[in-house]
Specification:
11 helices; mainly alpha
Length: 310
């Protein structure tokens, strides 16, 4: 009989007490480095000067705001869950890991070195630290997930998540990147991004079209075919998309308030609504890991059951 959502299996009940101090420490360090980068950047102290355009700075302020308001507290909270041995910690930890590796790689490689003023290279150890710790969190969380049973999703939820991922892939490829990419491949492009900040333009294109979209497509196909292995990475990617959605929303509002020429009220409002929708859906995907806390007697029984397994 398949256990219902919200009820812990015996194996999960034992794991709830198995604290992962290593994952907890990595998450706390990740949150600290993310906050430090945001504080020294253009949002607060303005000591870190990225080599980018005025529009790019407005966008970075939005991502820094997201880092301070959402990503750092999330890292600390999930770190606390990991310290307590909560089974939700590994899958939740993947969301900020995906987000930080994605954003900070762009911040590090997207600067216009030799073209625009700035000092981003002096802060490269800090930016590399965020990326490295993010990779470490992802590796540690993935190892922890291997010792857990698969997320308990209904077949309907699997199909819905697969369709949602396909829609996200279509939006990223067609709605965001197709037109600018076609323009950039012309003999005389006219797009502001490829002309003013070509490094950032191509870094984003490579990451989205070469990594994120293919990975999301693979997970969508896996879910539509009912593959268990696709559940946890799909939840992680959608959690990362939720954080990225809030980052894009903050970028849109920052550009609007800053009076940037290519700002758009529709983008700011639409990105906010999209981020809220994806966040709500991601919460549904993570819910199965938040069952009732087992009593002491139930925990002892669960340990005996797990101990008798071959």
């Amino acid at each position: 009989m398949t256990p219902s959502v919200g009820v812990l299996t015996a194996h999960e009940a034992v794991q709830r007490r198995a604290a992962d101090r290593g994952l907890a420490a990595l998450l706390v360090l990740q949150g600290t480095l993310v906050a430090a980068t945001a504080v020294v950047g253009p949002l607060a102290l303005d000591l870190l000067h990225y080599r980018t355009s005025a529009s790019g700075l407005d966008q970075i302020r939005g991502s820094d705001l997201t880092a301070l308001v959402l990503v750092t507290p999330l890292c600390f909270w999930v770190g606390r869950l990991a310290w307590r041995g909560h089974p939700a910690a590994p899958v939740l930890a993947l969301a900020p890991a995906v987000f930080t590796v994605y954003i900070w790689t762009q911040l590090l490689l997207g600067s216009e070195f030799g073209r625009l003023p700035g000092n981003a290279e002096w802060f490269s150890p800090l930016l590399l630290g965020v990326i490295g710790i993010g990779v470490g969190v992802a590796v540690r969380a993935t190892r922890a997930l291997r010792s857990q049973p698969p997320l308990r999703w209904s077949r309907r939820l699997e199909r819905a998540t697969g369709v949602l991922l396909l829609a996200v892939v279509g939006f990223v490829v067609v709605g965001i990147h197709l037109s600018p990419l076609v323009d950039a491949l012309r003999e005389h492009p006219v797009g502001d991004g490829v002309l003013t900040t070509p490094n950032a333009f191509w870094v984003v294109k490579v990451m989205d079209l070469g990594l994120i979209a293919p990975a999301s497509l693979l997970m969508a196909i896996g879910l539509l075919r009912g593959r268990y292995w696709a559940r946890a990475p799909a939840a992680a990617v959608l959690g990362g998309y939720a954080l990225l959605g809030w980052s894009v929303a903050a970028m849109g509002w920052s550009m609007l308030l800053g009076g940037t020429a290519d700002s758009s009220p529709g983008l700011a409002v639409g990105a906010t609504a999209l981020a809220a929708g994806i966040s709500g859906y991601a919460a549904v995907l993570y819910r199965p890991r938040f069952g009732r806390a087992p009593s002491t007697a139930a925990l002892a029984r669960a340990r005996r059951v797990v101990g008798r397994r071959p």
